[in-house]
Amino acid sequence: MELTKEAADVALKAxxxxxxxxxxxxxxxYHEASRLLCRASQQLEGILRDELLKKAQEYDERAxxxxxxxxxxxxxxxxxxxxxxxxFLFRQALDADESKNESAAVDLxxxxxxxxxxxxxxxxxxxxxxxxxxxxLDALERAEVLKGIKNTADVQHSGTSPMLxxxxxxxKIFQRTDSQQLKVSGKMTYTEEEKKVLLATSRIxxxxxxxxxxxxxxxxxxxAIPFTDKDGPLALSPKQRREFHRWARPEEICSEPxxxxxxxxxxxSIKQTIVSDCSFVASLAVGALYEMRFHKRLITKIxxxxxxxxxPLFNPFGKYMVKLHLNGxxxxxxxxxxxxxxxxxxxxxxxxxxxNEMWISLLEKAYMKVMGxxxxxxxxxxxxx
Length: 385
Description:
Number of strands: 10
Shape: globular
Distance between the termini: 58 Å
Mean pLDDT: 81
Radius of gyration: 25 Å
């Protein structure tokens, strides 16, 4: 009877993973429940034996049912990812358009058109083709209007800001140009002594975290292929290493991922796992609760890219910029959206109980990058700006 009880417990896990659309984990536990029931049936005879074998067959059939369409689901996910990329590019183009940055807008409209055209050739879904065609036509119409107004691309579209060395910082961060003075953390100028302090404190755990400037609002977030952080993957903690299977992007973890599910961040959705960053998770909860109660942005104003209304935006291209107050000044932290998961596709980092919401995992990753990786003995609080 112990085998049947163990099989029942395993089957419950399978059903739970099945409901959460964690296919690989559900398949594994369905087959494991079937195996245990087959072993238990060898100790029985008659009707009881037949019932156990029948149940084992049901588990195997369910595993095969949810496993067979996996290739189709993967293809559909790719189509959805392409549609989301097109929408993202079009929204970014509209924002640049409204900001009178015509050159950047034309570039983004063109990227949206090209990606939509390519995506249309890769799908047989008529509804999806119509959505892609709408984006193409809207982007083309507006791009043509802009080209008629401004034919020369005299506004440079900012690319990814390079990682700066110490010797580069004074000239590239604190210099004053003829047409523009770059603001750093709201201040127009710094004394020489302040510059030396900021310069010395920019390097944290082998990475440069430079002060956040107005020009960083033009950070590029769209790429031909998903963005990968040039600083490489973060170091894992011992507990994570024991369970680690791979680095996965949000689209590989859940269907239709979003940055924030609903109209605002929810402090009650934060779930800590095996990363020992209690203080940071607590600060996330406090910040989210404050934002919920007083409607003042603490969490949502530090995540980029953002919409025109300054709401943070899920980026299907996989790049995010986070503003954190570090060593006395607001600094920018660049991350990609790859997250550690185990063989059952479960996150090995803090996450949201809303299964397709990603802001908690991504903010934690930004903080972990500053701290040198997930592998650290404890945490201290961090400031949001």
